[in-house]
Amino acid sequence: MNSLKVLKKAIALLAWLFTWPYRSAIFLWRKGALKSAKRKIKYQSYLLAVGNLTAGGSGKTPHVIYIIDWLFKHKVNSKLATLSRGYGRQTSGFLEATNQSTAKDIGDEPLLIYKRFDESVTVLVSEDRHKALKFKSNLYSYIVLDDAYQQLSLSVNLNILLSNYTLPFYEDTFLPLGRLREHKSQAERADCLIFTKCPNDLSYSKRKELYEKAKVYLKKNTPIFFSSIVYDELKPLKKEFSNVIIKNAIVVCGLADAKLFIDKVKSEMNVLKVYDLKDHFKYNKVFIKKLVESYNSSKEPSETAIITTEKDIVKLLNSEFDSLIDKVPIFYWTISVDFGEDAQSFHAFLNEKIP
């Protein structure tokens, strides 16, 4: 037991040393000691950044979708775009999504957003956010920046910080012991905080506890909201499987935090096998064949289906997999964000902040 404590302390020290250069750079940047701090760039578009202090798992993409949908409904006739790094793509540089784009081209989450809005929203990817904004910001009234909380050289108009309810940022620790990639004190840059993936029956006492502990790290009067994930519709990848009655499931997902999804499937059907893959997992023929074999070897294939996420399904929309999955019922669960009793106040906040 003592050796385990020593090991944890050693890892914690290594994590502190590993993140020290980054934390030092943040400190110097805020003090104006770095050149980049003196040339914070403003762009013509109104920029909304959605991000977190951790390495994934807070539900950024569904919240980006929620905000884009809100902008479509409340800022009618305004041109909208979203910009991200395009994590996990096999390309580089600045790209704009088209109806020919694949997850390999632009990344799984940007493609998900593009497909969700039936290609009606401009989706941009670039490792260099400035390069993309330089070329495109004059064309759009609003640009939602996905995972841009750490982009300190951008003059962002609205900074929305997310934190997973199950592991609030103030209880987390630095990688690799925890998931923090930035110190919890940097929450003070946020214009609002959203606790995500909350249970639908979140009690008043728990809300108050989260609020009181989080506000210590925020600017005075920073609003705090609470949201939940809603599982909307289980959709077939191919229409011919629409009438399949699913009793058994083979679950496959590549998420930073898959517990909520796996628990949902388990609550609805008998789970035969779970492939809990790493976030942004790159599907290949070897794995697809393994997945299909799991389906073919199931005892009741006529009542069995492969169940996955919307984020994963866009990676299966690849012609090289067509012949392998053509005869296999594959379904994906769409999700949305629900602010519950906070919806009205969150919309009021957006109306107040966004011109």
Could you describe the 3D structure shown?
The longest helix is centred in the first third of the chain and has 29 residues. This protein has eleven helices and 13 strands. It folds into three domains: 34 residues; 203 residues, 3-Layer(aba) Sandwich (Rossmann fold), CATH 3.40.50.300; 104 residues, 3-Layer(aba) Sandwich (Rossmann fold). α6 links the parallel β7 and β8. The protein is α/β, with parallel strands linked by helices. It starts with a helix and ends with a helix. An eight-stranded mixed β-sheet has the order 3-4-2-5-1-6-7-8, sandwiched between helices. Strands 9-13-12-10-11 form a five-stranded mixed β-sheet, sandwiched between helices.
Strand segment tally? 13
Mean pLDDT: 91
Give the class from helix and strand content and strand pairing: alpha/beta
Q: Give me the CATH architecture of the largest domain, please.
A: 3-Layer(aba) Sandwich
CATH superfamily of the largest domain: P-loop containing nucleotide triphosphate hydrolases
Output the number of helix runs.
Answer: 11
Distance between the termini: 57 Å
Report the portion of residues in β strands: 15-25%
Shape: globular
Helix content: 25-40%
Low-confidence stretches: none
Order of helices and strands: HEHEEHHEHEEEHEEEHEHEHHEH
| Spatial extent as radius of gyration | 21 Å
